[in-house]
Amino acid sequence: SKKITIAIDGHSSTGKSTAAKQLAVKLHYVYVDTGAMYRAVSFFALSENLIESGQLDREKLVERLPEIKISFVYNKETDRADVYLNGKNIEKEIRTLEVSSIVSKVAEISEVRAKLVEQQQAMGTEKGIVMDGRDIGSVVFPDAELKVFMTAAPEVRAERRYVELVERGDDVTLDEVLKNVIERDHIDSNREDSPLIQLPEAKLLDTSNMTREEQFELLVSWAEAAI
Ligand code: C5P
């Protein structure tokens, strides 16, 4: 059967990456988590002290973009691709609330987006790919055969993310996580360059009252219909 491109966009912490990853495994497709790439750039900005008391030095970051090389390397133990920054595995480092609290500011910068979008498009030239993010159906792969928009009530999303962070041993409160989820969605949906939008052709997946199995079944049925 023919290979297609699947674009999964949506709000923060809707379970996009879990669902997209599962779908890719089922279809024997490549899965790419583009949020991890924006997080990697944010981690670079943090480690290089380009952020002072919450204030990001955009000009410096843009100047230093050529130094940033992002790659994905398969990890046998977790059966997933870990994100690498300049040859160093930073998969754990990018999932903190500290990175989450600046990533949407980093993702507003057009030069950052242009660099990452170019790399993302290069990964999809052969199709047979499931990519998740905010602008995949609108900017990265406007011709994707299947586009999905995932959302859920903010409280449901915050609760899920909170449980994840606490399980990892992070010292966070549910309220902090809820604030971050709401703030990120606001910035992502209102930025000038490539805002998060629900495209008319995208299939809506509201996961508020759905189990992971139900989400997966629906996604598979949409993918099968598109292939
Ligand atoms: O998907 P995840 O929540 O890890 O993404 C982190 C942040 O990266 C988002 O809140 C958004 O600001 C940015 N992002 C983006 N475009 C993408 C993927 C992520 O702007 N395609």
UniProtKB/TrEMBL annotation:
<keyword id="KW-0808">Transferase</keyword>
<keyword id="KW-0963">Cytoplasm</keyword>
<keyword id="KW-0547">Nucleotide-binding</keyword>
<dbReference type="InterPro" id="IPR003136">
    <property type="entry name" value="Cytidylate_kin"/>
</dbReference>
<dbReference type="Pfam" id="PF02224">
    <property type="entry name" value="Cytidylate_kin"/>
</dbReference>
<keyword id="KW-0067">ATP-binding</keyword>
<feature type="domain" description="Cytidylate kinase">
    <location>
        <begin position="6"/>
        <end position="221"/>
    </location>
</feature>
<dbReference type="GO" id="GO:0016301">
    <property type="term" value="F:kinase activity"/>
</dbReference>
<keyword id="KW-0418">Kinase</keyword>
<protein>
    <recommendedName>
        <fullName>Cytidylate kinase</fullName>
        <ecNumber>2.7.4.25</ecNumber>
    </recommendedName>
</protein>
<dbReference type="InterPro" id="IPR011994">
    <property type="entry name" value="Cytidylate_kinase_dom"/>
</dbReference>
<dbReference type="InterPro" id="IPR027417">
    <property type="entry name" value="P-loop_NTPase"/>
</dbReference>
<comment type="similarity">
    <text>Belongs to the cytidylate kinase family. Type 1 subfamily.</text>
</comment>
<feature type="binding site">
    <location>
        <begin position="10"/>
        <end position="18"/>
    </location>
    <ligand>
        <name>ATP</name>
    </ligand>
</feature>
